[in-house]
């Protein structure tokens, strides 16, 4: 149901620029939803709790970001977490999971019948099982926990804001959109936040100590650029005075995915969308937060593999799963929300009309391609225009090769006894340009991938963290924007490289770690000031 929130008032409704390399089957270049509400994208996402791989963070540290290695960030994952699974808390001596944090993490209470079919097929096909992708070994297939409590979403706002909303030193302004941030003309420190209230009244907030920018990997670079922090060549094009010449908006990375549709003509799946079933399930959910509406279908299934080295603990492909029960209409909603063209939408509907469908999505974890977020620079430049997004998808040949390997690792599932028992088969999508190629060939799957590409909603990296020796860096390891004073970035845009998994939990970790760093830095300044006053 999380798709239903897209293209509503709670979504920024961004679109990427059209490209000949990817998303060729999408209208308007490619739809990139972003949460426009308290809790941000964590209030509209799929609620899946994934931290990534230990190597992701050790890489950050190896690139010159002291204190960001796995051993240093793990305590912050645990600090934020209030895991509801007692057995999981005891696994590995309690090394990996936390209790008592603000963020509720638990198991989805209802399993979909189609989940068992896939889990059995994974076993038959020889895939490794993992009991906990956030534990000792990430690689394998299994079931995920989510940021949920009692069958309801636990968004970052519900987790971290609601418990402290009555603090006297906390003021939250809703329906406010930041336009620019400005420096004090005397001290040159960033002090002023200019924002629109209710989309019509310009207001100014004053920062006593520093400004923390946490607008996400699309809006953070957009605000910085509008405020004069960005590439000089870009800012001069639109006559914005340059405050700091930094590569803001570059280094955009995202998890793209390519879906495969498996049809099952003989299953025990139920259509929960008939009027009778909807009424029954809604009543059950409203009464005690149970039943199918408290579950997540097959979406809590997860898989991580290394397509080049199967025994490696470091994956290059991730698999997610969604289901469209026969005749439910879910495929049409999905196609409309993600922005597929009519040809692809009708082909998906055809599959979901014939049978129960499980959509296995092939996710590229470590893209070598890079995109960018920038300002519109035409004659009609307006600072209120949305950011211009260039995805960079599939521009590097290694990315294409990895996606094709990820597709081919899924295809043998149709040969398993479990699939045959349930009359499972791969649905052949109708894509005119690809249908002229030999079905199943590398050329076919490359064409298929370039048409079916979508975002998994994980853009990061547009205000890269790095040492002074890194010309691509925007912030230092304390998340302070380079070349200016009084400004930090605290969101996914600081990631030097994207993590091997969903980004919600890692971004919450970044917030937890930043909180300690900010308190430590200001305490050090206070102590230094006191020492000087004693001299």
Automatic annotation (TrEMBL):
Cofactor: FAD
GO molecular function list: flavin adenine dinucleotide binding; oxidoreductase activity, acting on CH-OH group of donors
Glucose-methanol-choline oxidoreductase N-terminal domain: residues covered: 216-230
PROSITE patterns per the UniProt record, alphabetical: GMC_OXRED_2
Alphabetized SUPFAM superfamilies for the sequence: FAD-linked reductases, C-terminal domain, FAD/NAD(P)-binding domain
The organism of origin for this protein: Anopheles darlingi (Mosquito)
InterPro entries linked: FAD/NAD-bd_sf, GMC_OxRdtase, GMC_OxRdtase_N, GMC_OxRtase_C
Keyword Cell membrane part of the UniProt annotation: no
Protein family according to the UniProt entry: Belongs to the GMC oxidoreductase family.
Protein name in the entry: Glucose dehydrogenase
Domain of life: Eukaryota
Binding site for FAD: 178, 492
Keywords from the named record: FAD, Flavoprotein
């Amino acid at each position: 149901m999380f798709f239903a929130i897209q293209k509503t008032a709670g979504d920024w409704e961004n679109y990427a620029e059209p490209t000949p390399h990817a998303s060729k089957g999408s209208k308007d270049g490619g739809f990139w939803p972003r949460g426009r509400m308290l809790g941000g994208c964590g209030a509209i996402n799929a609620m899946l709790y994934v931290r990534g791989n230990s190597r992701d963070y050790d890489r950050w540290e190896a690139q010159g970001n002291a204190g960001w290695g796995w051993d240093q960030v793990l305590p912050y994952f645990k600090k934020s977490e209030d895991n509801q699974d007692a057995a999981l808390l005891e696994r590995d001596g309690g090394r990996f999971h936390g209790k008592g944090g603000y963020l509720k993490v638990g198991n989805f209470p209802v399993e979909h019948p189609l989940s068992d079919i896939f889990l059995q097929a994974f076993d038959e096909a020889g895939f490794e099982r993992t009991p906990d992708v956030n534990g000792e070994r990430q690689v394998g297939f299994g079931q995920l926990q989510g940021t949920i409590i009692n069958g309801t979403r636990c968004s970052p706002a519900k987790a971290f804001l609601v418990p402290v909303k009555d603090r006297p030193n906390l003021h939250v302004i809703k329906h406010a959109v930041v336009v620019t941030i400005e420096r004090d003309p005397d001290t040159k420190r960033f002090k002023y936040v200019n924002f629109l209230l209710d989309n019509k009244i310009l207001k100014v907030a004053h920062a006593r100590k520093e400004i923390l920018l946490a607008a996400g990997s699309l809006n953070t670079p957009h605000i910085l650029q509008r405020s004069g922090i960005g590439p000089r060549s870009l800012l001069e094009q639109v006559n914005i005075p340059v405050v700091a010449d930094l590569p803001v908006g570059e280094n955009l990375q995202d998890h793209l995915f390519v879906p495969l549709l498996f049809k099952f003509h003989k299953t025990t799946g139920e259509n929960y969308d008939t009027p009778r079933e909807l009424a029954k399930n809604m009543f059950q959910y409203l009464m005690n937060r149970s039943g199918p509406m408290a579950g997540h279908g097959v979406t809590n299934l997860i898989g991580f593999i290394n397509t080049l080295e199967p025994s490696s603990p470091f994956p290059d492909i991730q698999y997610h799963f969604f289901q469209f029960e026969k005749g439910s209409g879910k495929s049409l909603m999905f196609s409309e929300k993600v922005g597929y063209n009519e040809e692809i939408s009708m082909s998906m509907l055809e599959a979901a009309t014939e049978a129960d469908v499980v959509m296995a999505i092939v996710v590229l974890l470590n893209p070598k391609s890079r995109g960018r977020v920038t300002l519109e620079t035409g004659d009609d430049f307006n600072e209120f225009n949305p950011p211009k997004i260039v995805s960079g998808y599939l521009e590097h040949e290694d990315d294409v090769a990895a996606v094709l390997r990820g597709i081919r690792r899924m295809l043998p599932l149709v040969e398993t006894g479990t699939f045959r028992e349930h009359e499972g088969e791969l649905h052949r999508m109708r894509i005119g340009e690809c249908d002229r190629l030999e079905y199943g060939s590398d050329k076919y799957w490359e064409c298929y991938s370039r048409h079916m590409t979508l975002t998994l909603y994980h853009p990061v990296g547009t205000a890269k963290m790095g040492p002074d020796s890194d010309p691509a860096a925007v912030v230092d390891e304390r998340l302070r924007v380079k070349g200016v004073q009084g400004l930090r970035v605290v969101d996914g845009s600081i990631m030097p490289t994207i993590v091997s998994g969903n980004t919600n939990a890692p971004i919450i970790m970044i917030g937890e770690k930043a909180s300690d760093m900010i308190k430590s830095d200001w305490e050090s300044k206070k102590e230094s000031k006191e020492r000087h006053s004693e001299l």
